[in-house]
Amino acid sequence: MARWEGNTRLRLEQAALELFTEQGYDRTTVAQIAKRANLTERSFYRWFTDKREALFGGGEELEERLVAAIGDVPEGTGPLATLLTAFAAASDVFRPRAFLRERAAVIAANPPLQERELIKLTSLSRVLTEALVERGHDPATARTATDAGMAVFRLAGERWMADEQADYAELVTAGAADLLAILAEAAPGPPGPPPPTRTRVLR
Amino acid sequence: MARWEGNTRLRLEQAALELFTEQGYDRTTVAQIAKRANLTERSFYRWFTDKREALFGGGEELEERLVAAIGDVPEGTGPLATLLTAFAAASDVFRPRAFLRERAAVIAANPPLQERELIKLTSLSRVLTEALVERGHDPATARTATDAGMAVFRLAGERWMADEQADYAELVTAGAADLLAILAEAAPGPPGPPPPTRTRVLR
Question: Which residues fall under the DNA-binding region feature (chains A, B) (predicted)?
Fold first, then answer.
């Protein structure tokens, strides 16, 4: 990932994450982060409003890439298929797996960061729903497709972080199939042939 | 709903909601809420830590009822079917539709309340996932079933609030079928007969 190297913002993110992991989020200062990255505090504040934001810098980038990727999906594609295609296409802006794993650990240990993460994910949901509505899907369908898409996104993301070799696009497809199997069992629909399920199970 | 009437806590919730709606959340004080409910401030603080909590009083009750309802579902039921059955069974603790509609409007107008709502919903998700894991479902499946269940819960809840005559259990079933149709279109699985879809569409 060439974007990851040599970029001021990404160096600051990496330095922040290292310090949060080594000495705790609360005890880390912006001055320490800047020093670790061999940059000035002024550089830090050019990119982030506070130390918390250093963990969420990739969020806006992802949002922008996803909206762009949704725009590239052929017209007439169903709402959830549109989202899943966009997720797979936008994975090039993901931070490296090791970074994301450490980031998840820091967030899990700090309730204020968890709240921030929740708010960011909700903002992402809202943006995706709006993008689907702009493509002509009715708002309730767009919102429900987004709920399903976010569930697949979370599932694929967790598997991607856990497995260095995994291909993200394949995990998105597998996650959608797993969610479908869970739903099909609970809501089998009117009498007729059962929906196809996969033998792949969630472990 | 007999539980709704004559209950100190519910009178305080109703008074708080009225004042939030009439004069705004920020401008309403605990003293005003207590006065509107013909109760003392001390009574208020017996039930709630602050005015914000007066909007979220039903959350813990719902959580408890859902966990109890999950325990009542026959063993061997699939994870999402378990959740959907529990949602339908726990709807007797819902506040009246008019209350929930006004509550939703107040929350939508106040970002700190939106954050609180998000945190409460996340807490509910966590509790449901744990309850499924305790019943023997593996954690990843339990979590994914919870994601799907929360999507159905939201969809059914919005329709229930909007339609005075609607039956909640039927809306849960319809919501699950709608989510299934959206997923089946995006993740059709291996070659075979197409999964059944419903003609009911989300509008």
Answer: 29-48
Interface touch A141/B202, C-beta < 8 Å: yes
- Which stretches in chain B have pLDDT values below 70? 1-6, 188-203
Q: Which residues contact A105 (CB under 8 A, 6 or more apart)?
A: A21
**Cβ <8 Å between B187 and A179:** yes
Q: Which residues contact A162 (CB under 8 A, 6 or more apart)?
A: none
Compute the Cα dihedral for A53, A54, A56, A59 and give only its sign: positive
Q: Which tokens belong to B55?
A: 């909007």
- Determine whether domain B1-54 maps to CATH 3.30.1330.40: no
pLDDT for A1 beyond 60: no
| Shortest alpha-carbon distance between residue A10 and chain B (Å) | 28
Residue type, A10: L
CB count, 10 Å around CB of A27?
A: 10
Q: Which fold has domain A1-51?
A: Arc Repressor Mutant, subunit A (1.10.10)
- Which chain A residues touch B202 with a CB distance below 8 Å? 138, 140-141, 144
Backbone torsions φ then ψ of A124, nearest 5 degrees: -60, -45
The CATH classification number of A56-203 equals: 1.10.357.10
Q: Is the per-residue pLDDT at A2 higher than 80?
A: no
CB atoms within 10 A of CB B3: 11
ipTM of the complex: 0.85
Model confidence over A125-156: pLDDT tens digits?
999 999 999 999 999 999 999 999 999 999 99
